[in-house]
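Dear colleague,

Thank you for sharing your sequence with our group. We've completed the structure prediction you requested, and as agreed, I am returning the results in plain text so they can be pasted directly into your records. Please verify that the sequence below matches your submission; if there's any discrepancy, let me know and we will rerun it promptly.
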Amino acid sequence: MVLDCLSDPIRLAIVYQLAEQERVSSELCCGDFYSLAGKSNLAYHFAKLRECGLMLTRVAGTNRFMRLRREDLDARFPGLLDAVIKSASKDAERLLLSTEREVIGAG
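Please find the predicted structure tokens below.
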């Protein structure tokens, strides 16, 4: 189910951006992904990522903050997330993924 979820380029881009953001902080909000798709489309992809256990959402007031469930994934599928992220980074331009210097909060 995890690999099936990651077969979608938008969901892969979301996971990639969350993984890149882990270096600076552990969470991103919904608005940080608007460059990938519209709000309703993103809501669908966020739900799919939560259902398969890749992402956790924290609600704070009217904001929703997302982060990867890296510890859980690494315990269940050791090395899988790192392999997916490494593969996605090689294909980042085609997938319209952010580069390291575009990571939110990095200066």
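Summary note from our side: Helices lie at 2-6, 9-21, 39-51, 70-76, 80-90.

Kind regards,
the structure core
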